[in-house]
């Protein structure tokens, strides 16, 4: 029997917080309202994500002209609420700092707008950031067309050595909200080592669409117009008032940065582990599997030439709330598709958004803050098949003194263990169970979800990775 505790393993898994992810956003803002919606949310996470650039771009839906002034208008609203936000976290940046990082990108559409002599303030911003001596990856969230990024890399190829270009590409991470011009496919061909998350093809095939998808059989109220009006738009201050009504779909661009928020679940360097922004697998998708006949604005859908990070599938059984007895229990219905990898976290990230919007109007004593999840043992454990194990999140705390609820669940898709894990009573702070026997080394991911009872209820996580070896014969 193996019973792991803090005494057995020494130091707690509560390590120093990870370095902030640095991010540049390429946005076709003013094409439709969802870019402004996503920007409002993003600014509320400017304390946790280092915003290095906000670049106005074109897309297939807005082929001429860019609108950096619209980015500045939202930042002006952020400036109005910054004093309140800083009472919750001093890490929120000055509005002037953000304004200095706003730039126009390529003013024309797609490949026709890149080439010699076509550098823009936006592409130069990208080049400078790629060449900064910063060891952290540089994330680029592409909310519209990607041609400003294409121009930056095109210019690098013509002005820097092959080694320098390879070094820049190695630190680059792209998450594109589908291909909204013809440069996405070019980038993936031209730079075969470029880390690229995208659902190519028709938008109906895209994981990101699950952020606003109404799913039969679950509670969709957190993406309803009534919820948005009550929790974001009305009575929530000047930044919330800047959040426009939905025209086509709520915040289609937001999944590109949800996975960068340090919530204990997200693992940006491991898209296949899953998180608030969805889960993605590295493979070469077949063109016929990308919904090539679906709507995408008319961007050519090319056959992919190499593996990319793209749609993965989760099998998920929600835990509905119960009025009596155990507060949550596994539901009867199981869901399985690429969108599941994103919408399964929707209640948590919508509540998180609503809580931060409240920060813009209320003092820390009047608002809710996320719990701090701590383990009594390491976050990676080595054991043998058949061992009994105790997982313990009882050291977790809440900064507001709120009562905490716990939910442990196996997340099989990121691991290699084929046998199911039976965890028993999932809502205990301390969980004891037996791992299955294995014939070959395997990994299993178990996640603890800790939710406070504040208003709105806030959730954080800790992932525990089990490395299971066969029992010696």
Describe this structure in words.
Helix 2 runs parallel beside helix 3 and helix 5 packs across helix 6. The longest helix is centred in the N-terminal third of the chain and has 21 residues. The chain has two domains: 291 residues, Inosine-uridine Nucleoside N-ribohydrolase, Chain A (Alpha-Beta Complex), CATH 3.90.245.10; 106 residues, Immunoglobulin-like. With 473 residues, it is an alpha/beta fold. The protein has 13 helices and 16 strands. It has a six-stranded parallel beta sheet with strand order 3-2-1-4-5-6, with helices on both faces. A four-stranded mixed beta sheet has the order 11-16-15-13. A hairpin with a 6-residue loop joins strand 15 and strand 16. It is globular.
Instruction: Tell me, briefly, the overall form.
Output: globular
The unreliable regions are 1-14
Give the terminus-to-terminus CA distance: 16 Å
Give the full name of the CATH homologous superfamily of the largest domain: Ribonucleoside hydrolase-like
Separate helix tally: 13
Instruction: Give the structural class.
Output: alpha/beta
Percent in strands? 15-25%
CATH topology of the largest domain, by name, is Inosine-uridine Nucleoside N-ribohydrolase, Chain A
Report the mean per-residue pLDDT as an integer: 95
Helix content: 10-25%
Total number of beta strands: 16
From the alpha carbons, calculate the radius of gyration and give it in angstroms.
23 Å
CATH class of the largest domain: Alpha Beta
Order of helices and strands: HEHEHHEHEHHEHEHHHEEEEHHEEEEEE
How many strands, which pairing sense, and closed or not: the largest β-sheet?
6 strands, parallel
CATH architecture of the largest domain: Alpha-Beta Complex
Number of domains: 2
| Strand ordering within the main sheet | 3-2-1-4-5-6
